[in-house]
Design goal:
By secondary structure, this protein is α+β, with helices and mostly antiparallel strands. Helices cover about 15% and strands about 35% of the residues. Strands 1, 2, 3, 4, 5, 6, 7 and 8 form an eight-stranded antiparallel beta sheet that branches.
Length: about 140
């Protein structure tokens, strides 16, 4: 998916219209907060059926075009059980993660230490559609 975001208002509209684009979303508490003339933050939760929720944290840079993320964290829960999470924390010593460095996913059984490469998150394209599609496919 090409990055369609040319201004902070574009990303803000994207965040607030996710619920209209994805009928599987039951409720969203996502907020887009401008932290100055070049930086914004997205945070909150997206709720789905079966007590599934996606916690979203993104740092958005809009000092150049197109808009990019420079940090993110996404956590999926069923009830209080953390199922998995994605983050951009570098692990340069882990050879298995180098193909998508620094993007990776933490998965069971040892969700904190069991990491795999992932190509469905990025700094230069919207991540939420891929994550929502992943939840819908479960």
């Amino acid at each position: 998916m090409k990055n369609p975001f040319r201004a902070p208002e574009d990303y803000e509209l994207y965040v607030y219209s996710l619920i209209e684009k994805f009928p599987s979303i039951k409720r969203s508490t996502l907020t887009f907060i401008r932290l100055g003339s070049t930086l914004g933050r997205v945070s909150g939760e997206i709720h789905f059926d079966n007590d599934i929720r996606l916690i979203v944290r993104e740092r958005v840079l809009y000092n150049r075009l197109p808009i990019v993320l420079d940090w993110y964290g996404y956590e999926e829960y069923r009830g209080e059980e953390k199922l998995y999470w994605y983050d951009s924390q570098p692990h340069p010593g882990d050879e298995e993660l180098q193909s998508t460095h620094p993007h990776h996913k933490h998965i069971p059984p040892d969700v904190k230490h069991n990491r795999i490469s992932t190509a469905n998150v990025s700094f230069v394209q919207p991540n939420l559609p891929a994550l929502i599609n992943e939840i819908e496919s479960l």
